[in-house]
C-alpha cells in the first residue's frame, strides 16, 4: 500500500468559470490559473503521482508551457488514472470555499471524477468546508483543495 497527498489553491477572479472535479459550478468567479484551474483535480493528481513515487503536476504539465494554456484538467485526471489503473483503493478530499455551497454538486463531482479516473464513485469522498471568514479563502478570494489517496 502507498499513500499520496496533494494540495492546490487558486485565486478566484471574475470572468472565469468555477470548475471543481471537472464540473462547472455556477458562480460569478472562477479559478485563475494557467490551465482551467481545477484545484480538486490538481490536488487529486498530485496525491496519485506522489503515491506512485512520481513528480508533481507542475513538473509534468508546467505552467511555463504556452501549449498548455487553458488546458482542461480532465486530461490530467485521465492520465494519472491510467498510471494508477487498478491500484486506487480510495481518494478522500476536502474543498475549502466560502461560496458557493458545494452540497448540491458533490454527487456530480464524484461521478465525474470516478469516470475520469476509471474507478467506482464509492472510492471517492468529497468534503466541502468554509474557512469561517479567515484568510484569502475566507474572504472569498481563493479556493483550496486537499486530497489523500491510498494505492494498492
Q: How would you write the strand order of the largest sheet? A: 4-1-7-5-6
Q: Whole-number radius of gyration? A: 14 Å
- What would you call the quaternary organization? single chain
The number of distinct β-strands equals 7
Helix content: 25-40%
**How many H/I helical runs?**
5
For the terminal residues, how far apart are their CA atoms? Answer: 5 Å
Structural description of this entry:
This protein is an alpha+beta fold and 152 residues long. It contains 5 helices and 7 strands. It has helices spanning 39-51, 57-60, 74-83, 106-117, 135-138; strands at 2-14, 18-20, 23-25, 29-31, 88-96, 124-129, 142-151. A 5-stranded mixed beta sheet has the order 4-1-7-5-6. A two-stranded antiparallel ribbon has the order 2-3. α4 (106-117) links the parallel β5 and β6. α1 packs parallel to α3 (74-83).
Compact description:
The chain has 152 residues and is an alpha+beta fold.
SSE blueprint:
Blueprint: E1 2-14, E2 18-20, E3 23-25, E4 29-31, H1 39-51, H2 57-60, H3 74-83, E5 88-96, H4 106-117, E6 124-129, H5 135-138, E7 142-151
Parallel strand pairs: 5-6
Antiparallel strand pairs: 1-4, 1-7, 2-3, 5-7
Helix pairs in contact: 1-3
State the main characteristics:
single chain; 152 residues; alpha+beta; five-stranded mixed beta sheet; 7 strands; 31% strand
Amino acid at each position: 500500500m502507498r499513500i499520496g497527498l496533494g494540495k492546490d489553491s487558486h485565486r478566484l477572479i471574475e470572468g472565469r468559470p468555477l470548475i471543481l472535479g471537472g464540473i462547472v459550478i455556477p458562480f460569478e468567479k472562477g479559478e485563475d490559473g494557467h490551465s482551467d484551474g481545477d484545484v480538486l483535480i490538481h490536488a487529486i493528481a498530485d496525491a496519485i503521482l506522489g503515491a506512485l513515487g512520481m513528480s508533481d503536476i507542475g513538473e509534468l504539465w508546467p505552467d511555463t508551457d504556452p501549449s498548455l494554456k487553458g488546458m482542461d484538467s480532465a486530461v490530467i485526471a485521465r492520465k494519472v488514472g491510467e498510471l494508477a489503473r487498478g491500484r486506487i483503493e480510495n481518494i478522500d478530499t476536502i474543498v475549502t470555499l466560502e461560496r458557493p455551497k458545494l452540497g448540491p454538486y458533490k454527487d456530480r463531482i464524484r461521478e465525474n471524477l470516478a469516470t475520469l479516473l476509471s474507478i467506482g464513485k464509492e472510492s471517492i469522498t468529497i468534503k466541502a468546508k468554509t474557512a469561517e471568514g479567515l484568510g484569502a479563502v475566507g474572504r472569498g478570494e481563493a479556493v483550496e483543495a486537499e486530497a489523500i489517496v491510498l494505492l494498492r
